[in-house]
Hints:
Elements: H1 8-25, H2 32-39, H3 52-67, H4 74-84, H5 87-92, H6 97-110, H7 112-130, H8 151-171
Amino acid sequence: MTDLPHSPESASTSDRDRQIFLEAIAGRERTLADVIGQAGGDFLKGESPVPRLIQRKTELKLFANDHLQDSEGALLLVLQTRIDEADALISKHLELPLIALTTMVEQVLDNSALLTEIVRQADFRWGQIYGERPHFEIPGNPPHPDDPYTMTSVTAQLETLLRAIAAEKSRSQDF
């Protein structure tokens, strides 16, 4: 037989549970932790315990990982660090986080000083990863032939990422 909210069986079970609970706490002083524990039972019902900002950052980092064409991996690490540091921007776009990523990438592409810094950071990270001396690009000089991160290559990678974002936004309205 199914226990309905007002059936005699559910009432007696509820009364028994309440009686057991009251006996268990009898003579014991209630603490703030007890009150929070009792009240917090329904607090996260249906919600993830991971804050939405962290969820969105993780989604953006995974998107970048899947769509940035970076065989060396250093530019991806630099971009993921920038995503981690972009709380304010991502918070503005919690419902559509790809807008935040688009804004971040466009800011880099529209600002030559910022692009130069991103290229420098990618070169530096590449050197750390591979244990080699990085080849920093010097303005006015041709890039070193072994430099995996030049202004041209990073620009191309970021533009490809922007196209992937645009394609994803056109496919899905909820990401």
